[in-house]
Amino acid sequence: MQQGTLMRKVKSKSWKKQRYFKLQDDCMTIWYQSKRTGKTESAFSISDVETVREGHQSEVLQSLAEEFPPERCFTIVFYGRRGNLDLIAGSAEEAQCWVQGLRQLIDPRSFALTFALLSLTWIRDWFQKADKNKDGRMNFKEVQHLLKMMNVDMNEDHALRLFQDADKSESGSLEGEEFVFFYKALTQREEVLSLFQEFSEDGKKLTLLELVDFLRQEQLEDEGTEEMAMELIDKYEPSETARARHVLSADGFLMYLCSPEGSIFNPQHRALWQDMNQPLCHYFISSSHNTYLIEDQICGQSSIEGYIRALKRGCRCLEVDCWDGPNGEPMVYHGHTFTSKIPFREVVSTLGKSSWGNSSSPPPLMGTSPPSSHPQREQVISVPASSCSTGALEDPRVLCPHIYRGTSLSPTPQELKHKILLKGKKIGRLEDTLDGPGDEMPNVSDDDNGAEAEEERRRAKVVLMDDAPIIQQGSALQKDKESLAQALSDCVIYCKNVSFRGFEEAHSHSRPSEISSLSEAKARKLIRDAGNEFVRHNAWQLTRIYPSGMRTDSSNYSPQEMWNVGCQIVALNFQTAGMEMDLCDGLFSQNGRCGYVLKPPFMRDEETLFNPSDPSSREGPSPITLTIQVISGQQLPKVANSKDGAIIDPLVRVEIHGVPADQAHQETKYIENNGFNPRWDETLQFQLHVPELALVRFVVEDYDKTSRNDFVGQFTLAFANIKPGYRHIHLLSKDGTGIPPSSLFVHIRITE
């Protein structure tokens, strides 16, 4: 991989150019040059790479599927809005070399190595930026310019003193190790050093027992602390001598605090940690609205990239709006609008390749019923049966005997793993599908909005079935139409659309295998008028919420109020960044990012008394107090499109999103002209009545006294995933991607 590889860089089916790619000696930078000219064209840092996809997992590579085998193709996906890099290697072996090498470098489990490499990369990058005349040295004037670039306004006398201390050769300029010394002095973490010395008897190292004391007293680790201390020393202590003596230096202590083990997010909750054997209605399910759109709802672009991004983000409920296209081929787009179109077959292919990722036990994928513009032309399109639940768990009498005992018609994510569930209209009941045809006619619509209902009436369905892809027209004969309608109906198993006519009607006539869709406005009215009934309803049946038709700009509503009453499928526009998607990412970043989060016990009880508007209705412990000391920030990014030399005035706002009584926010004072290493040392305190539903959002903003503050970074997580103690919060950008090395350092306490 480091020797360089000749690969094709692809931007379109007709744009394929050979480029020479090489991993630099720092193991953190990749550059590539033209084969024809030999000129270096571009470079990027490993820290900019979010993930690597193998095979034809992009719109461009899918268009080249017949020309190049998937074993030679891969896609580098970057953080932020930077475009993907589609590449075709000369052989499958070369492709694997790059894929595995890149994954190793971006793997958070390689944190110690990556942290050290990033430190060296940052030092080198800052030196190159500050060395204006490119003579390999940096004078004091260049140092002053460097400080402004690093987002810090430092007193000139203090800066000169640091410069002179680093200038060991007394040459009036810094080079090589002198600049490294200057950079380390500049980035000295006094607050971390003070904490280190508080537990270190000699102020130079932490013995094994001293580290154990710190883990127990401050980090509140209560099990296996001695083993954990040994592991931390082995993993993060850079000195071989110190590791051999089982002690941790100040550098090793800082690396631990910046590591996943030192994060505010409980690392044990990153993995699949919840019970996956509850009925589907007992889970919050990550859900998208009009998944194929990557822009607005009227003229925006439709792309399979929307499905790939949503699935990689953990989304488990997708929308596929399919309409009749040329020559009877179904096309996916937003009907009755000017959005672009993509072939349905490409969507199906993408779902087959991207649905399960690398998980060894993936949960099911749900899809809302795809429409078509002509009710007389129902089309059936198929994929392998192994991916589609077209029978009640294939053999329900063996795998799901409880269906026949009448105790439940809702299977579990564990039982449905590797399956695709179709949400749509159905003839008859689930029992009729299992035991024979029924005589109940399908509902006209499951939507309460008139315009949405009319559109549903015009829709026909595209279905995933067995064997190879086939297309059948349903308009030739009445017999064919009836056959296809029944075939379609039989594919809808556990998510039959039904109209919502009130909680009493649903309780009397609906079944757990059915689902209703509500607009955000209708849901809010029900929350306001019948909160407890809504919670009880969602304890036994699925409910889907979708955005208002007025949100043509693809804006989002807050999902929190819907989660507060237990709504499982809260569909959001994933392409639109903002607080709403921060909450979605924050909730579903746990449990292995599988897209399923188990609801708290009091929301799974059909007789619950809980009402989100009355926190006292929750049975359980008394309210808890969350105390957050915001200590410092590190290397905060500049505001986008800011003027040269501009330095941010950062403040931190902590928001609580939960039941109405818990909704709150507090913020620190702003620190003037310091985005590099601001110190706040301020304590914020919140009382949480229903902590099980609370999400905590940390937001950094650039204070502006004359206009609205500018966004700098954020991090959101469920309260249940917070680790107490001294923790780092690694900030994310507006669209939810990492912005290393930007972080906050906080101290967390949780008391009853």
From TrEMBL:
Enumerate the catalysed reactions: a 1,2-diacyl-sn-glycero-3-phospho-(1D-myo-inositol-4,5-bisphosphate) + H2O = 1D-myo-inositol 1,4,5-trisphosphate + a 1,2-diacyl-sn-glycerol + H(+); a 1,2-diacyl-sn-glycero-3-phospho-(1D-myo-inositol) + H2O = 1D-myo-inositol 1-phosphate + a 1,2-diacyl-sn-glycerol + H(+)
Please state the Enzyme Commission number of this protein: 3.1.4.11
InterPro entries tied to this protein: C2_dom, C2_domain_sf, EF-hand-dom_pair, EF_Hand_1_Ca_BS, EF_hand_dom, PH-like_dom_sf, PH_domain, PI-PLC_fam
Compositional bias of kind Acidic residues:
445-454
Which co-factor is required?
Answer: Ca(2+)
**Sequence ranges assigned to domain PH in this UniProt record:** 1-107
Q: Which UniProt keywords apply?
A: Calcium, Cytoplasm, Endoplasmic reticulum, Hydrolase, Lipid degradation, Lipid metabolism, Membrane, Metal-binding, Nucleus, Repeat, Transducer
Instruction: Please report the record's description of how this protein sits within the membrane.
Output: Peripheral membrane protein
GO BP term, pick one: lipid catabolic process
The EF-hand domain is annotated at: 118-153, 154-189
Region Disordered, as annotated, extends over: 353-377, 432-457
Q: Where in or outside the cell?
A: Cytoplasm; Endoplasmic reticulum; Membrane; Nucleus
Every PI-PLC Y-box domain range:
488-604
What Pfam families does this protein's entry cite? Answer: C2 (PF00168), EF-hand_5 (PF13202), EF-hand_like (PF09279), PH (PF00169), PI-PLC-X (PF00388), PI-PLC-Y (PF00387)
Coarse class of the primary localization is cytoplasm
Record GO terms (molecular function):
calcium ion binding; phosphatidylinositol-4,5-bisphosphate phospholipase C activity
GO CC, one annotated term: endoplasmic reticulum
Domain named C2: residues? 604-733
According to its UniProt record, this protein's enzyme class is hydrolase
* SMART domains for this protein: C2, EFh, PH, PLCXc, PLCYc
Q: Does the keyword Phosphoprotein apply?
A: no
PANTHER family recorded:
1-PHOSPHATIDYLINOSITOL 4,5-BISPHOSPHATE PHOSPHODIESTERASE DELTA-4, PHOSPHOINOSITIDE-SPECIFIC PHOSPHOLIPASE C FAMILY PROTEIN
Q: What is this protein called?
A: Phosphoinositide phospholipase C
Q: From which source organism is this entry?
A: Campylorhamphus procurvoides
Q: Identify the coding gene.
A: Plcd4
